[in-house]
Amino acid sequence: ARAERTLREAVCAAYGELLQREPTAAAVREVASQFGGLAFDADLATEAAAQARRAEVERLAGRVRSGGRVQLMCTCAPLQCHGGELARWIVERAGVGRGACGEQQVD
Hints:
It is a single chain. The chain is mainly alpha-helical. It has one domain. It has helices spanning 2-20, 25-34, 47-65, 82-94. α1 packs parallel to α4. The two termini are 25 Å apart.
C-alpha cells in the first residue's frame, strides 16, 4: 500500500509539473525522468500530443474564466489523482481564485 501511495504521489506531482512546462514532446520524457523514471505512453510524447494537451486545458480554463463549469471525474476518487493537479492548473490559468472548483475545493 505504501509503494502504491508513493507511486501515486509521484505520478500526480509529475502531471502537475508537466502542466507547468512548455508543451513539447521532450517535456514528457524530462518529467518522467525527473520523477524517478516513470513509464509513459510514447504517443503522449509527441509534439502533436503536447500541443493538443495544452490547447484542451487552455480551453477548459477559458470556459471557467467565462463563468462556465467543468466537472472532472476519475475512478481514483477519493484517492489522490492527477485530476487534482489539472483542476489547480485550470483555476490558476482561469484566474478565478481558490475554491472555484465547486464542492471539492482545490488548495
